[in-house]
């Protein structure tokens, strides 16, 4: 996608992460409340900007997005906008088993009608090779660990962390350190210090096959709420086979120093240990 976008002549091109695109659509719909045919208005606005719309990581999990995309895709294509998108999922499998999926099928039909579907799988999982050769729990928190995390990000995501988009997860903003190729860089503070719910972790585990979690502190007796959220996060990532890379203040078995969650955290530590194994890393992500 990088090569295609930068090789495309002219200025009438627009590249967005798919979820950033949908966030913009929702914001414009809110501003257009009461207007007739708001999706047509939004499509007109995109047409004033671009002839080619590039999506990174076309992936649908939200029912509201699914309901909108049929009409929106038709409106964009009707205005002669060309769509170029990357996805780990073929069109017919998008939003499979989602609520009211029948209302999303027009979006699939529009994509198949107006786009050429190309499988560019090279047969070599470079992400797996990188992960199996790397330490996935990096400590202590210092410049060298940060350099290692940045190096892993570059290898796994395929691009430097030049942008840190804000995601909308369950209608709330979530600050990131980077988003690229279904890989997320994010801080412990964002995911476990802020008031996050199990539903947030479920959404993230469906959206991203790999997460780099930065700056995990030693969890003291004053951080039981943070530890509880961390356990919930690990549980959801484990269930959906998310690959997890962590920078932490202490080794794995020294990271929790609290009292209330000793039993629960032992299970969490066991899962974290398994998540570093070659067998786990070979498991296919389950969005």
From TrEMBL:
One GO cellular component term noted in the UniProt record for this chain: cytoplasm
Keyword Nucleotide-binding on entry: yes
Biological process annotations from GO: cell division
Sample GO molecular function, one term: ATP hydrolysis activity
Keyword annotations: ATP-binding, Nucleotide-binding
Keyword flag ATP-binding: yes
Protein origin, superkingdom: Bacteria
Coiled-coil segments on the chain, per record: none
Protein name: AFG1 family ATPase
Species assigned in the record: Salmonella enterica (Salmonella choleraesuis)
């Amino acid at each position: 996608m990088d090569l295609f976008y930068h090789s495309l002549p002219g200025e009438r091109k627009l590249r967005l992460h798919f979820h950033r695109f949908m966030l913009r659509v929702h914001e414009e719909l809110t501003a257009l409340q009461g207007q007739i045919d708001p999706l047509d208005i939004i499509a007109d606005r995109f047409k004033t900007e671009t002839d080619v719309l590039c999506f990174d990581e076309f992936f649908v999990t939200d029912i509201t997005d699914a309901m909108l995309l049929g009409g929106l895709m038709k409106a964009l294509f009707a205005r002669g906008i060309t769509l170029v998108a990357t996805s780990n999922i073929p069109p017919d499998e998008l939003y499979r088993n989602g609520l009211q999926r029948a209302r999303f099928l027009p979006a699939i039909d529009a994509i198949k009608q107006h786009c050429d579907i190309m499988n560019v799988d090279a047969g070599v999982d470079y992400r797996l090779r990188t992960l199996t050769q790397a330490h996935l729990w990096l400590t202590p928190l210092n410049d060298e660990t940060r350099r290692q995390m940045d190096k892993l990000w570059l290898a796994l995501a395929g691009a430097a962390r030049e942008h840190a988009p804000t995601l909308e997860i369950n209608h709330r903003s979530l600050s990131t350190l980077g988003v690229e190729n279904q890989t997320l860089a994010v801080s412990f503070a964002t995911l476990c210090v802020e008031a996050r719910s199990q539903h947030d972790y479920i959404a993230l585990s469906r959206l991203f096959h790999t997460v780099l979690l930065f700056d995990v502190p030693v969890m003291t007796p004053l951080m039981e709420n943070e530890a509880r959220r961390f356990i919930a996060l690990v549980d959801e990532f484990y269930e959906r086979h998310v690959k997890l890379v962590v920078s932490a203040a202490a080794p794995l078995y020294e990271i929790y120093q609290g009292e209330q969650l000793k039993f629960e955290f032992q299970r969490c530590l066991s899962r974290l240990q398994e998540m570093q194994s070659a067998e786990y890393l070979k498991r296919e992500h389950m969005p």
